[in-house]
Specification:
Tetracycline Repressor, domain 2; mainly alpha; single chain; Homeodomain-like_sf; 241 residues; TetR/AcrR family transcriptional regulator; DNA-binding; 2 domains; globular; 12 helices; Arc Repressor Mutant, subunit A; HTH_TetR; DNA-bd_HTH_TetR-type_CS
Amino acid sequence: MKSTKRKNMPPEERRAQLLGCAQMLFFSKGFEDTTIQDVLDMASVSKGGFYHHFKSKDELLFGVLDGMAEGVFSQMAVVASDKTSSALNLLHSFIHLRANYLREHDYPGQVEFFRVMNQDKNMVLLEQFKRRVRTGAMPILTGIIQKGCDEGTFTVADVDTAAELILFQSTFIDLALLRAIDARGSDTADHAAEKLQAAIDMQFLTLDRILGLPDGTTDFGWPEAVEVTMATVPATPPSAN
C-alpha cells in the first residue's frame, strides 16, 4: 500500500525499508515485472532517495538476496567455527541446516514462501539466491570434505568438484517438494508424498556415494518432513472480484 506522507528516516532504516518493500513486490509481482517506480510508490520515497542507497534494480535485488542469505550464512558460520568435531559430524551439521531451519521457523509459512519463490515470475530471484548460497557454502563444505579425506572417512578424487556437485544436487528435492505442496488435499496427495520421500532418499544416497560413505550414512535430518508437509493447510486463494 502506498504511503500518503513521506517520512524522514535515518539512512539505515530507509535502506531497510526499501529492501522490505522490494522483497514484497518481487514475491507478489516477480522481479522482472517490478519497476523501481513500484518500489518508490510503496515506500513513498523520491528517486533521489532511492538512488542514494541503490544504483539500479539489480543492486536492489542483490540487497534483498543478501538479507535472505544472511540467516543461512550465519548458521553455516557456526558449523565452520567447530574445530573439534569429526568431519562426519560436521557434515551432518551442515546438511541438516535446512531441515533444522524449516522445523524451527513456522513451517506452514515456510511452505507458502517456498511455493511463491518457485513461481515462474520469481525464477530469476530464486536462481540468484541459490547461486549466492552456493558461493557462500563452497569454502565451508570443501573444508569439511578435505578434513574427512584427511581423517580417512571420505574418499573423493577431487575435493572441490565433490563440493560443487553436492551443492548443486542439494536442491534436487525442490521439484518433488513443490509437486507435493501443490497436491495437498487432492486425490494425488499420497502419490506426491511418496515421490517426495523417494527424492529425499535418492538425494542422500547420492551424497553418500559421492563421498564414498556407506549407503544410509546421511539423511535430510527430519524424518517427519514429508508427513508434516502434506499436513500443512494450503493458503486460501484470493476471491475473484
